[in-house]
Specification:
mainly alpha; Serine Threonine Protein Phosphatase 5, Tetratricopeptide repeat; 2 domains; two-stranded antiparallel sheet; 9 helices; 4 strands
């Protein structure tokens, strides 16, 4: 076995054998570039061929650190954006009841502008009315406009009336009937049909539910659905009329028209 040749540590000058100095730990043996594999001197800090730092690959450590920093910055920016969106997102819109309806008290005349448009003057504040009173007031406003063929008012005030209906603590079948007619007048027939179904679920044979179904059939021009609605109305009319529900008296003209149309 031959002795290894004596070397001098390039860092501290101490005699050294093997690959590292026993005095300071500096590398003593030959090195090669990790990028291009050129042989490097013990003192070299950079490769004389490709310029890479001695003992490292082609920038992999720096590149990895750069990606980590960039990813952290992106995550931070996304978090800031999400927090801002959640903070600035507007709350769900609620109908403004402080100026909703432009409706005078029931039975009072409505003041209109000289051109015959929407009522003018200061609108009454109905925000302090109960949900049921607000719904009744707005529904009456829309129905009066529909009777005058005032489609602009119907379209403008129906969403407020339906918003008031949605705020009811509990709805009666009469409330559902009014809401269904509001839906039907603006073409929301699926919503109107669903309310008619709910009326019949709560009170089988309920006459005003068939009135809604007949109204929907008229809107759609569906003669088959209209005949079915009138036949169902005729089948339940006698028994339901005997129940003397208050809303049947309130809508006597609607029921009278259905009886006329449903007559054999």
């Amino acid at each position: 076995m031959t002795d290894q040749p004596a070397r001098t540590c390039p860092s501290c000058g101490a005699p050294a054998t093997g690959a590292f100095c026993s005095a300071c730990g500096a590398r003593v043996g030959p090195r090669s570039c990790a990028a291009c594999h050129a042989e490097l001197s013990a003192q070299a800090r950079f490769c004389h061929r490709c310029g890479q730092p001695a003992g490292t690959g082609p920038g992999r450590g720096s590149e990895r650190r750069a990606w980590i920093v960039a990813a952290a910055a992106v995550i931070f920016l996304l978090a800031v954006i999400v927090m801002k969106v959640l903070r600035d997102r507007p709350a769900a819109a609620v109908p403004d009841m402080a100026n909703a309806g432009n409706a005078a008290p029931s039975g009072a005349p409505l003041a209109t502008d000289p051109g015959g448009g929407l009522p003018s003057g200061r609108a009454p504040d109905i925000s302090k009315l109960s949900p049921s009173e607000r719904f009744q007031r707005l529904n009456n406003r829309v129905m009066e406009a529909a009777g005058r063929a005032d489609s602009a008012t119907v379209v403008n005030f129906t969403p407020m009336a339906l918003g008031a209906y949605a705020q009811l603590d509990s709805a009666t079948n009469d409330d559902r009937y009014h809401a269904a007619i509001l839906h039907a007048q603006v073409g929301q027939l699926a919503e109107a049909r669903a309310l008619a179904d709910t009326m019949l679920l709560r009170s089988p044979g309920y006459l005003l539910a068939y009135a809604v179904r007949a109204e929907i059939a008229d809107f759609q021009g569906d003669s088959t659905a209209l005949r079915r609605a009138l036949a169902d109305f005729r089948a339940h009319d006698a028994a339901e009329s005997a129940a003397r529900r208050p809303e049947y008296a309130d809508h006597a003209d609607v029921l009278a028209d259905l009886r006329r149309r449903a007559a054999p």
